[in-house]
Amino acid sequence: MAAKLIDGTAIAEAIQAEIAAEIVQLKAQYGLTPGLATVLVGNNHASQTYVRMKQRRCKKIGLHSIAPTLPADATQTQVEAVIHELNVDPAIHGILVQLPLPGHLDEEKILSQVSLAKDIDGFHPINIGKLAMKHRIPSFEPCTPAGIIELLDRTGIEIEGKEAVVLGRSNIVGLPVSMLLLKRNATVTICHSQTQNLPAVTRRADILIAAVGRTEMVKADWVKPGAVVIDVGSNSVDDPTAKRGYRLVGDVDFKAVKEVAGWITPSPGGVGPMTIAMLLKNTLLSAKRTAGILQ
Ligand code: GUN
Question: What's the CATH number of domain 29-115, 1.10.760.10, 3.40.50.620, 3.40.50.10860, 3.30.565.10?
Answer without folding.
Answer: 3.40.50.10860
